[in-house]
Specification:
binds phenylalanine, rod-shaped, two-stranded antiparallel sheet, about 40% helix, alpha+beta
């Protein structure tokens, strides 16, 4: 009997020691001591050899030891849980005095920037912005602009055809027609947008580029008005000292037509690398809206006249920012873009 009491005291002491050892799972200790094959259970089994008076004493004692071990296991579990939480809180703690993560603030793409600047110039002159579809009918892109089928002018714009009568617009001029069909004079619009030509990519060509079209139709509009508007555009875009000059040209949808140059803003007209020694840089096409185009849109050419112009936005951006390769505008290399 004393033997068993001693044994129980030992079991309790051992179990309590083990429970609080580092790296020991308290549940394992429970199985080891209190489980079916555990040490305490073995003691209870051996009680058969005791006298009827001794049995309840040992039984009570064994229950106390069991309760003590259970309590120690619970206490240890609570302790482990608390220290785990503490550990987590420590490792997750936030040092609010650390410098924050910096986010790069983006900015507009140079083409968008230029386009908006150009739009602002014309909006300031009372123009409004009109848009047309990029997938366009041959009718609007060519026929209504006085370019019938088989007209040689079609060869100068290598066009992506979708069907015989549907194409990717090769210029923004079809928007002129769409506007004039819907709206009667006075008309004062610009139309910036994407255009497509089946050109191979190189430093000055891309199958997708951008143009900005201008159209003014009213009573008594003359080439003098065209000149005034373009001069203002040139000075605003390339600098106050910029002059413009008209050279005779041919477009089927304008008569007379002109190509317009700006004086070289790099050398002031003396001749340099940028203007290839010319002193002038070709910048756009323009002219007085052809009477056939006006009447085709239901506008009487005897009552109204108008001018139109169109230029490449990439070309303006490249000249203005001294970009010598158009591909830079499309490749989205941050080293290039971040300079704007
Ligand atoms: N659409 C012509 C082109 O792409 C430019 C132009 C527009 C010429 C308006 C005259 C009038 O070459």
């Amino acid at each position: 009997m004393n033997e068993l009491k001693k044994k129980l005291a030992e079991i309790q002491a051992q179990a309590e020691k083990k429970i609080n050892e580092d790296g020991i799972d308290p549940e394992k200790v429970r199985i080891e001591y209190l489980g079916k094959k555990g040490d305490l259970t073995a003691v209870l089994r051996s009680m058969g050899s005791l006298s009827p008076e001794e049995r309840p004493q040992i039984g009570q004692l064994a229950n106390k030891v069991r309760a003590a071990i259970e309590a120690a296991i619970e206490a240890r579990k609570q302790h482990l849980k608390a220290s785990q939480l503490e550990h987590r809180l420590m490792s997750e703690k936030l040092d609010v005095t650390m410098p924050g993560e910096r986010f790069e603030i983006g900015h507009r793409h140079p083409l968008t920037k230029i386009r908006r600047e150009l739009e602002d110039i014309f909006l300031g002159l009372g123009f409004s912005i009109a848009e047309g579809p990029e997938v366009e009918y041959d009718y609007y892109n060519f026929q209504a602009l006085n370019i019938p089928p088989n007209h040689p002018a079609r060869d100068t714009q290598d066009t992506f055809y979708i069907t015989d009568s549907v194409l990717l617009r090769s210029q923004t001029s079809p928007v002129q027609v769409r506007v004039m069909e819907k709206q009667k004079p006075p008309i004062r619009i610009i139309s910036p947008g994407r255009v497509y030509r089946a050109d191979d990519v190189d430093a000055t060509h891309s199958p997708l580029f951008h143009q900005l079209e201008g159209l003014v139709v009213d009573r008594g509009i003359t080439m003098g008005d065209l000149k005034g508007v373009l001069e203002l555009f040139a000075k605003n875009t390339f600098g106050e000292g910029t002059r413009i000059r008209f050279r005779p040209h041919h477009f089927p949808f304008t008569e007379p037509s002109a190509e317009v140059d700006v004086s070289c803003f790099a050398c002031g007209g003396k001749g340099c690398r940028l203007c290839k020694g010319e002193g002038w840089i070709e910048i756009l096409g323009a002219g007085m809206v052809h009477p056939k185009v006006l009447s085709g849109c239901g506008i009487d050419p005897n009552e109204y006249s108008g001018f139109a112009f169109g230029f490449g936005i990439e070309r303006v951006a490249m000249l203005k920012y001294h970009i010598d390769d158009m591909r830079l505008l499309y490749e989205n290399d941050m080293r290039f873009l971040s300079q704007f």
